[in-house]
Amino acid sequence: MGFILWGLSELIRLYILLIVVWCLLTWFPGAIQSSLGQFITKLVSPYLSFFDRFVPALGGVSFAPIIAIIVLYVVQYGIQGLGYFLGV
């Protein structure tokens, strides 16, 4: 059970990293159209589009990735707390 919770926590950490990389790629012209950029966009955009509906962009800047990362951190802490609660 502890291995599963650890694996979920690591997957969340990796997904947070992908969101950060995607945000950085959007700053550089043409980077998001590269094969790596398209791959990361396919992984990240379904999750971020959920937050785009609720978090309006201000001045052309979307704050949805920040909210999405905060939610992932809360879920990650919840998983770690569950591990401590279960004693694994």
Helix content: over 70%
Mean pLDDT, to the nearest integer, reads: 92
Q: Please mark out the parts with pLDDT under 50 across 5 or more consecutive residues, or reply none.
A: none
H and E string: HHH
Query: How much strand content do the residues show?
Result: under 5%
Euclidean distance between termini CA atoms: 7 Å
| Morphology call | elongated
The structural class is: mainly alpha
Rg, Cα atoms, Å: 15 Å
Number of domains: 1
Find the count of extended strands (DSSP E, 2+ residues): 0
Oligomer: single chain
Largest sheet: none
Q: What count of helical segments does DSSP give?
A: 3
Q: Explain this structure to me?
A:
This protein has 88 residues and is mainly alpha-helical. The chain has one domain. It contains three helices and no strands. Helix 1 runs antiparallel to helix 3 and helix 2 packs across helix 3. The mean pLDDT is 92.
Kindly list the characteristics that best describe this protein:
88 residues; mainly alpha; 3 helices; 0% strand; membrane; YggT family protein
